[in-house]
Every structure is written in structure tokens, then in C-alpha cells.
Amino acid sequence: MPEFTNPFIGVVPRKMTLSELTRAIRLDLAAEHEAVHIYEAHAEATDNELAKKVLLDIAEEERVHAGEFLRLLNILIDDEEKFLAQGADEVNEMAEDTPNNTHQQSSSVLSIGNLKKSN
Ligand SMILES: [Fe+2]
Fold this sequence. Notes:
mainly alpha; binds fe (ii) ion
């Protein structure tokens, strides 16, 4: 639960190092994913069409925020994109071996799988 009555909550005595900043950004990224989950769950839990529409609209905005934090991590950390691409490649390989896979592979991450499909 937020502690809005404490004016010093979140105030730190110094600037963060790069390592501390990147860990903070990972927490910020996790918070965006948590927000998406909460808003989508609340939208599914109501029959009020306006509330559902607003909640799902905000959930999409949080997904944009998650993308911003992810991009920021990719800029701040030299090998972040390499590890993300490695993970994407591993899932792409599993997707190719999975029958009835209904999700399309992302074309934003080049992989051997993507290159095979484009030929
Ligand atoms: Fe957000």
C-alpha cells in the first residue's frame, strides 16, 4: 500500500550508480507488467463496458511504458539486447517444433528461424 503521508518515502540521499539505476529500471519494468495484469484482471472482472474500455486502454498504455523501459535497459546495458535476442531465439526454435502454434513469431528480432521462414 502506498505511503503517501510520508513525504520522505522514495527520497534517496545520493544519485544512483549505473548498476543501481539499471536495477531500478528493472523494478520499474516489473511494475508496468504488474499494472497490465491488474488492469486486465479488473476489466475481465466487470460487465461495466465503460470501465472495461478505460481499463484496457490504460493496460495498453502500460505496455507502451514497458517497451520504453525495456528500450532504456537496452541502451544502458551493453549486453542486454544480446541476452534478450538469445532468449527470443530459444523460444522461436521451440515454437517451430511445436505443432498448432497459434502465435506468430516477432519479426523485430532476427533469428535463424525468421530467416528460414522468409526464404
Ligand atoms: Fe506506466
